[in-house]
Amino acid sequence: MSATLLAVALSLVSAVAYAAAAVAQERLAARTAGAGAGVWRLLGTGSWWWSVSLNASAALLHVAALKFGPLTLVQPLGALTLVAAVPLGARLAGRRVTAGEWRGTALTLAGLAALLVTATGPAPDDTLALPEALAVAGATAALIGFLARRGARPGLRHATASGLASGVASALTQTVTVAATDRSGPLLDARVIVVALLVAAFAAGGLLLSQTAYRGGLGAPLAMVTLANPVAAALIGLSLLGERLQGGIAGLALALAGAVLAARGVVLLTRSAVPTAPGPVPTGPEPDGALAAVVPLPVRAEPEPVVLRAS
């Protein structure tokens, strides 16, 4: 098998793993909707760690794909997560994918493809200096805090914040990888350690934010996460890593058209959202009492007494 085919295969498996993780998070979120602080208790359940394991496996497969294929090939294939997650979520919910969901998915993917086509990959040695990394982290944290502020309704705000966190984590990962493999300097200097800690913080934050976002459904939040992730990374590349849009004015027009198409797709997915019925409530005891705190058990109605009357 050639390196390109191996990269494509790894990317496809990674996309399916990301999709399965998103569906698992969304179904867990459906059970914790309106639970308030009880959501945090459920983060210790098996369903939560199953989704975390799937996300970690998908990330490792994505990194492995980048070893065998170029970024311009691997990154667009990551958008197939949306294609896999929408029908998978519908199937597990016992329904069919609506026509609006298919149209929204297609428009979002078309817009994302247009954005990715106009972007160039970063030069191999382009990295963020420590002050630049700290500035990016601070500005992103402030924006995430604004989007996911207390009282904000779970949905596209949290999904956007999750995509931004994941995109910044990806951009910072590139800096850590290049700096750590640079043989001209020490393996672990201050920049590598600090940026690696920032990567861990943003990756974990993105995962928690997506968990909250999926309480508003799967299709539209996942589309926003899928869109915001590469857009955030591209903004960092254009502003700090010397990247440029391909095609000049035509490339800029294509990027704007792609943004409009993707936005329209997200809107369609939002309008076509179908509430996901929560999974069956476990009948066994819950050691930590988490489900008892957030999911009321069904109450059986007592039968009315039968009164016999003398004729």
TrEMBL record:
Top-level division of the source organism's lineage: Bacteria
Keyword DNA repair set for record: no
Signal peptide start and end residues: 1-19
Coiled coil: none
Ranges that cross the membrane: 73-93, 105-123, 129-148, 192-210, 222-242, 248-269
Alphabetically ordered keywords of this record: Membrane, Signal, Transmembrane, Transmembrane helix
Name of the protein: Integral membrane protein
Organism encoding this protein: Streptomyces xanthii
